[in-house]
Design goal:
binds magnesium ion; binds 3-methylbut-3-enyl trihydrogen diphosphate; mainly alpha
Amino acid sequence: LGFKHTLNSKKNVVEQLLARCFQTNNPFEEQLSQAMKYSLDAGGKRIRPVLLLEATELCGGDEKNAYEHAIAIEMIHTYSLIHDDLPAMDDDDFRRGKPTNHKVYGEALAILAGDGLLNSAFEKMINSSLLQGTQGALLATQTITKAAGISGMIGGQVIDMDSEDVQVPFETLNYIHEHKTGALLTAPLVAGAQLAGANDEEVNALKTYGYHIGLAFQITDDILDIEGSEEKLGKDIGSDQENNKTTYPSLFGLDKSKDLAKEHIDKAVNAVSVFGEKARFLNELAFFILTRDH
Ligand code: IPE
Ligand code: IPE
Ligand code: MG
Ligand code: MG
Ligand code: MG
């Protein structure tokens, strides 16, 4: 079966799992649940949970054991988007084809909805780890926890904020991209492998693949912020220029940025060649990341 079909069937599994979250009967939790669901159910490519499920399968594990970690990574990613869009950060009005969370629910509830998603993600991973009682489940929880934190996504966002209105050097830009975006793309690959009890060689191959698709993903995001379609992306374009961010295109121009993204995709594909024919989906996903329009 083709790549698109496999991608969609994995995505459907994720959508069904997500749809069941935050259906509360407690009236006091209702508005918060609604605000969290608003952003979580809004769509999105679901690349991170798909990567996690794929890594588990690739390393011979049972996909079902990876479900809770898969939803958790999407919750963390969604929280990072809600906060990223806040007026204090990128100040954007559209996300996933709808007005941003704070535009609908106000800043206070948007902040708390993000906090809620983050904590629910940890709760899910810990519950699943207790239930499975395996070292792999705990390691996966640790991997995702670290990637979301100060040496991961949050750390990258901090330097990203610092870099507004100043031209940052290439090394700093790479630090930003590797952390604000790369961390949450590498973590599901490593965590998925850990849930399957993979060996070091497999984990390291997936880590390298994640590092390179992470950089390519954010370079492409920066390119789409200039020449993408708001309708297809479902989010504001021109945000980086408005906020005076240093990006790959601002340092190198669009053409060179595309070449650099392609180099990372080649390296990513090379890293997973240890899996042979089984790496087919990851190979095609890497090219999807490079050529995506949304
Ligand atoms: C957007 O991520 C934020 C970045 C890290 C560039 P995605 O492009 O994966 O957004 P969704 O999940 O599909 O909405
Ligand atoms: C996203 O970077 C990083 C996050 C951790 C959310 P951007 O700020 O470029 O993402 P978009 O373009 O708003 O999706
Ligand atoms: Mg941002
Ligand atoms: Mg942004
Ligand atoms: Mg962007």
